[in-house]
Amino acid sequence: MMKLPDSPKNPHLLQKIQYFTDPISYLESNQEQYGDIFNAPILDNSKRQLLVSHPEGLKQLFTKDGQKFYAETVEFLRFIVGDESIFCLEGNSHKRARKLLMPLFHQEGISVYGQTICNRTEQVFSRLTPGTNFSAYRVAQEISTAIMSSIILGIYEEKRVQQLTQLMIEFWNSVSSPLIASVLYFPSLRKDLGAWSPWGYFRHLMEQIDQFLYTEIRDRRVQYDPARTNILDSLMSAEDEEGQRLNDQQLRDELISIIIGHPGVVSTISWALYWIHQHPEVGEKLLKELDTLDECPEAMTIFNLPYLTAVCQETLRIYPPAILTVPRVVKEPVELMGYELEPGTKVCACIYLTHHREYLYPESKKFQPERFLEKQYTPYEFLPFGGSSRRCIGDTLALFDIKLVLATILDNYQLALVNNQSVKPHLQGFGTLVPSSGVKMVFKGKR
């Protein structure tokens, strides 16, 4: 067995800069030169950070997860989500949290949110007038925040909804900013020089979000109603096997962990609108499929539409919600793809590179939803939400949101791209590839 895979010879700092300024070029050029596993010290100061993209390597990694590897939260993410978040827990604590949270995200649990998702989508589009140009990304942000207010936090008071919307859009925009991203990924730049400095601004923003969430938690405890259907109230009533419930900090940490996943939903909706309108034949097939439904179809009927599902899968394949999975750290000497890895070595599955393997996905840069109707991919070939015990716990809810928002838009409104220029991806702070232009569209009116 070989000791360690080859790695780029550039200094680590330069590699980080290359990754954050042009991640796709960095990943593809290194894969071409070094193969299916290479050393890429891009997330923190560790010198051994391997990226794996071969499905067999992912299978080895995920099946040994928890035995030979343990998950490690990226340091800046811990600052945001808190120590009690499911992202940061390990071993039995992680299993307990996952067991407590999982029922909230099963299909039978989320189906009650269907009408709310459709209503919130229509409310946002009702503000547009024919001929108006808009950013699909910005509109998706508004829809996602409105949905989040209702189904995650159970907030319907317009003033509070607007307050949360302002905070969350400011948060998402901040982590897309190169300045904020630099202080997140380069600890030496974290100097609080007041609200006008990048780190001071971000800390102040997090304090405002925390204040909002803790106020909501305290108010809800006083006015607790188990009949309300939202994730916060469900979390408050959830008990583990010993009858223990989550305290205020645990509730805050789990809520923020769910909330920060929404940029992936926003990005997927905006990318899907881009692909659908760049390829009119895709939109026509989707409309034909939607036309087969009853006048008031159930949410799960929409969720299970095969072509809509394929369109969403292809969107998630080309630009997944996260480029990399959660890092795994070697606990004891282990073999991975013919290499002998020492304790302390970090390994990430590179979702983007896996999704663009040509033998799996011929002409991988082309948008072709039919590939998901023709073939069933394994969890090691298609993994937009990660894998193993660290797979995103809210993946079903995310897909539910995406599908119902797209179906509502396409079935009720006519949109068009402002121009047919290709849209390039931009790396957002948490590793999401968002459309750099926001996808400029024009609202043509109701269908």
Q: How would you portray this structure in words?
A:
By secondary structure, the protein is of the alpha+beta class. The chain has one domain (12-446): Orthogonal Bundle (Cytochrome p450), CATH 1.10.630.10. It has 20 helices and 12 strands. The protein has helices spanning 12-21, 23-34, 55-63, 75-81, 91-101, 107-110, 114-125, 136-152, 158-176, 178-185, 198-222, 231-237, 248-259, 262-278, 280-291, 299-303, 306-318, 351-355, 371-374, 395-412; strands spanning 37-39, 49-52, 69-71, 132-135, 328-330, 334-336, 339-341, 346-349, 413-417, 425-427, 433-435, 440-446. The chain has a 5-stranded mixed beta sheet with strand order 1-2-8-5-3. It has a 3-stranded antiparallel beta sheet with strand order 4-12-9. Strands 6-7 form a two-stranded antiparallel ribbon. A hairpin with a 5-residue loop joins strand 10 (425-427) and strand 11 (433-435). Helix 9 (158-176) packs antiparallel against helix 11 (198-222), helix 14 (262-278) crosses helix 17 (306-318) and helix 14 (262-278) runs parallel beside helix 20 (395-412). It is globular, with a radius of gyration of 22 Å. The termini are far apart.
